[in-house]
Amino acid sequence: MMKEIKVENKYNGKKLNKIILEKIPQLNYNSFNKLLRKKDIKVNNKRINKDIIIYEGDIINIYMQESMKENLVQKEIKIIFEDENILIVDKPYNLEVTGENSLTQILQQKYNNPEIMPCHRIDRNTTGLVLFAKNKEALEILLKKFKNHEIEKHYIAWVYGIPKRKSARLEDYLFKDTKKSHVYISNNFKKGYQKIITSYKVLEEKADNTSILEIEIETGKTHQIRAHLAYIGYPIIGDGKYGRNEINKKFNKKYQQLHSYKLKFKFTTTSGILEYLNGKEIKDIKNINQIFKYDKK
Fold it and tell me: Cα(first)–Cα(last) distance of the chain, in Å?
């Protein structure tokens, strides 16, 4: 099996492994190193055996053994709720919601239905509930509901530090730097910044100076929760972009400990074929210990 990748601007100057592992999520880091050892990766038609820096416009060819190929349709995706109009699934980490080899593609193939589309997104390494529409009519309704804040999104996060305020509604401003794939927070409005609202409540305080927060976002901007919590001094454990490396190493977490665990339908406008969802709450079945796999203290 040969896979070709044309490098986009967002990967300009990034390491080869980051690109390949994001574009082909069925591969892990060990598989990537095996491909390097066997010189089964070409960059601009030249075989390589090192994890080199890649630039926009480069062409990467990966030659994989059939044993490395994972059939997307067979990938285990847990269905939390399903009816004739919607799907709510539990997204694992290291999987994009959209794009090539994505959660959307898996579900479209599994159901043989190209109309299955996501109504919102969560980051590649954020786990938990994602809502999909099964048809165009449902998609149109649900996109409007999210835009009008008629669907609540609740998350659980494991953060470093214990907030003095046990609950708070944070209102600040976010700027997205597309080229750097990074966002910045300000407590004052600036040109190019958009208002964000993030609410949290402390669920548990731990002896190791960490805590478990329940989070609700009223705005759904890129990296909002991760950046907002870091901004107020409580970075999510495992977050390599907005967290602290020494803390991530201490707890041996390589991706952000953030989980989408509950969706609440609170419709205030016409809902058409989805009126039956109004007032419904869909909650993940896992408990906190299962989500973050820590020892309760």
Answer: 48
